[in-house]
Automatic annotation (TrEMBL):
4-amino-2-methyl-5-(diphosphooxymethyl)pyrimidine binds at residues 38-42, 70, 109, 138. This is Thiamine-phosphate synthase. One of its GO terms (biological process) is thiamine diphosphate biosynthetic process. Gene3D superfamilies: Aldolase class I. It comes from Eshraghiella crossota DSM 2876. Pathway: Cofactor biosynthesis; thiamine diphosphate biosynthesis; thiamine phosphate from 4-amino-2-methyl-5-diphosphomethylpyrimidine and 4-methyl-5-(2-phosphoethyl)-thiazole: step 1/1. The lineage of its organism: Bacteria, Bacillati, Bacillota, Clostridia, Lachnospirales. The gene is thiE. Its EC number is 2.5.1.3. Condenses 4-methyl-5-(beta-hydroxyethyl)thiazole monophosphate (THZ-P) and 2-methyl-4-amino-5-hydroxymethyl pyrimidine pyrophosphate (HMP-PP) to form thiamine monophosphate (TMP). Mg(2+) binds at residues 71, 90.
């Protein structure tokens, strides 16, 4: 995995998109410079989600951007996605690696240094850590301190992406935390100008 792909990581959410066509929203974000896309849709039937996955994967690959599936290793396998992102309560990293193979990207959520070290030892390629500014898409998300984020970044040799409530007005606050990128949901998908917002994120992220 190229670490540069983690710079601006879009995570999908149909509700945040406000009824707009999700593929069109993803395309606008890709036009604006998003470097990785994760399909995370909690309220879709499997076959519908699978169809969406194939469509968004095709779009991502036209832009040479990795396409990741949230949680669902079966879906990642059946759609030949570029990888999967696993939460603490999902399938274990080592089992996912056995199923998906050595060439797929496996990301893992880590909220503590212990979780971060364990995920790295089990073979994760990158970590997602937060919620750094709370979250509008996960109501039960616990805000992570910047000190904890810094400690996680220092504790592992794999790249860390910050997630949780990140938008154009607060992303600069993450400078010097050690992250390799940010994962954004509402901060891009709720905006009228998704392409322009993504471009602004890219400009800011080059300097942090």
């Amino acid at each position: 995995m190229n670490r540069n792909n983690l710079l601006l990581y879009l995570i999908t959410d149909r509700e945040a998109a406000g009824g707009r066509n999700l593929c069109e929203c993803v395309k606008a974000a890709l036009d604006g410079g998003v470097t990785m896309v994760q399909l995370r849709e909690k309220n879709m039937e499997y076959e519908e989600l699978k169809k969406e996955a194939f469509e968004i994967k095709k779009l991502c690959h036209e832009y040479k951007v990795p396409f990741i599936i949230n949680d669902n290793v079966r879906l990642a396998l059946e759609t030949d996605a570029d990888g999967v992102h696993l939460g603490q309560s999902d399938m274990g990293i080592e089992e996912a690696r056995r199923i998906l193979g050595k060439n797929k990207i496996i990301g893992a959520t880590a909220k503590t240094v212990e979780q971060a070290k364990a995920a790295m030892e089990q073979g994760a390629d990158y970590l997602g850590s937060g919620a750094v500014f709370g979250s509008s898409t996960k109501k039960d998300a616990v805000t992570m301190s910047f000190d904890m984020l810094k400690n996680i970044c220092r504790s592992v040799a794999i790249p860390v992406v910050a997630i949780g409530g990140i938008n154009l007005s607060n992303v600069s606050k993450l400078a010097k935390t050690g992250i390799k990128g940010v994962a954004v949901i509402s901060g891009i998908l709720t905006e009228t100008d998704i392409c322009g917002t993504s471009e602004k994120f890219r400009r800011i992220l080059k300097n942090i």
